[in-house]
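User: Could you go from structure to sequence for me? I need the amino acid at each position, not a summary. Structure tokens:
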């Protein structure tokens, strides 16, 4: 085992993941903790890293740099070459350790609205490190999650992006409405998921608000089983998400998905006609943190 060189942190709203890494970015140890929303980030970080060398620098990304995080770091404006991401880092010292918190990105999205991201930009920088060809030409990325991000990257620079509330909407409706309560989990190979995708595709004129109740009514009509309701609901929401991205970004080629395997399986179905490259969300985050470490701390 090689000597550790830095600590990388992916610090979201609800979860902290820390990686003790060597110079090549290989993980030597891991630690977890509560998300930035829990507050007192300085204490959480100190407790999580208490057994690690206090002289090692730490590079953090995500909501730790937001208004609810440890220190607020201003957004960098798009278009932005991802290789310049670390230039906007906020650096400070905590209990003798050098800390750098990476910035998020802002833009005017395809709808003309202000849009922001924190954490996904680090994954994108990591994706370009892992797949060098992704930094050439026009590329479209999709980062599914609580707030899914569709991101246009041209020659390694984020030019524009759009946020979809797909993950959070599904969670709220599945857990707190009559539509799919106790309706199982969303499965990409479920016939009900295919039915949801088909309904979203064939009835776009109705809009998602006018289709959502069919999650309930089709159960009552015996067209889908209760334990398939979550799959149908997921199909409706993801189908609408992908259809909107098709219109906004004029999809004409492969989409790179950065997410968990479970989410990739769901999104690959409606994106099959374009093809999809799948990158693991944690792996890209670590690669992005390694890039930032080399920019900020490596000799």
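Assistant: Here is the amino acid at each position, in order:
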């Amino acid at each position: 085992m090689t000597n550790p060189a830095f600590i990388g942190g992916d610090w979201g709203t609800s979860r902290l993941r820390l990686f003790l890494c060597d110079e090549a970015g290989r993980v030597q140890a891991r630690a977890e903790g509560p998300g930035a929303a829990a507050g007192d980030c300085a204490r959480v970080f100190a407790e999580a890293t208490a057994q690690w060398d206090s002289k090692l620098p730490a590079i953090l990304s995500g909501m730790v740099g937001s208004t609810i995080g440890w220190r607020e770091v201003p957004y960098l404006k798009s278009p932005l070459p991802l290789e310049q991401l670390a230039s906007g880092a906020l650096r400070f010292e905590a209990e003798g350790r050098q800390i750098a918190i990476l910035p998020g990105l802002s833009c005017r999205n395809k709808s003309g609205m202000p849009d922001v991201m924190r954490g996904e930009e680090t994954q994108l920088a990591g994706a370009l490190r892992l797949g060098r060809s992704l930094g050439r030409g026009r590329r479209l990325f999709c980062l599914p999650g609580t707030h899914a991000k569709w991101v246009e990257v041209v020659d390694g620079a984020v030019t524009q992006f759009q946020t979809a509330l797909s993950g959070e909407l599904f969670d709220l409706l599945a857990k707190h409405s009559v539509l799919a309560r106790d309706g199982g989990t969303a499965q990409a190979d479920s016939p009900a998921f295919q039915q949801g995708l088909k309904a979203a595709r064939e009835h776009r004129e109705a809009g998602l608000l006018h289709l959502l109740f069919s999650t309930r009514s089709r159960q009552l009509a015996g067209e889908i089983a209760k334990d398939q309701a979550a799959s149908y609901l997921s199909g409706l929401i993801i189908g609408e998400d992908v259809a909107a991205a098709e219109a906004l970004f004029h999809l004409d080629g492969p989409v790179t998905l950065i997410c968990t395997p479970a989410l990739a399986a769901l999104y690959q179905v409606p994106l099959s006609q374009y093809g999809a490259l799948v990158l693991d969300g944690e792996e890209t985050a670590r690669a992005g943190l390694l890039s930032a470490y080399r920019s900020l701390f490596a000799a």
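One structural detail worth keeping in mind: The mean pLDDT is 95.
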